[in-house]
Amino acid sequence: MIALKVTAKAFRSGSWWAIEVPEVAGVFSQAKRLDQVAGMAADAVAVMKGLDPKSIEVTVIPDLPQAQADVVEASRQMAKQAEESRFEALLLSRRAIKELKASGLTVRDIGFMLGLSPQRISQLVPEGSKQRHSTRINAAG
Q1: Are 20 and 12 in contact (CB under 8 A)?
Q2: Phi, psi of 29 (to 5 degrees)
Q3: Concatenated DSSP letters of 47-73
Q4: 8 in helix, strand or coil?
């Protein structure tokens, strides 16, 4: 259970990150890497407040020049949009595969049309054992 939410402001100081937690007076720490800042801040706050470090939620805010902060934010937004697009493409691919299979096309033909390998087609829309059997009979007959 979260007992306390704090912000860890991280500033470069040589090859270290200097950490300040404005919500708790007197809490300062340091970390070698940015991914260590939340843990170090939680530990420092826990000592000052007598809490379990696991009960402290830390939001890390690296201090960057505005131009760098803008680039980081733009990159994160683009990555989020790309992930959403990949998910939508996956859903559309599954729909296309199902419809094309239902019309009698082979996995290889569907893969060629969608730019996917036959193996990927089978991963996206696995055939049931009955469908595979009937496909073999139809293909042979």
Answers
A1: no
A2: -155, -170
A3: HHHT--GGGEEEEEEE---HHHHHHHH
A4: strand
Residue 110, helix vs strand vs coil: helix
Query: Amino acid letter at 81?
Result: Q
Strand order in the sheet with 56-62: 28-31, 16-20, 4-13, 56-62
| 78-121 pLDDT, tens digit each | 999 999 999 999 999 999 999 999 999 999 999 999 999 999 99
- Are the beta carbons of 36 and 8 closer than 8 angstroms? no
What span, in angstroms and rounded, lies between the C-alpha atoms of 126 and 120?
10
How far, in Å, CA of 111 to CA of 11, rounded?
50
**pTM, rounded to two decimals:** 0.63
Q: Which two tokens stand for residue 96?
A: 């296309």
Separation between Cα atoms, residue 12 and residue 44, nearest integer Å: 18
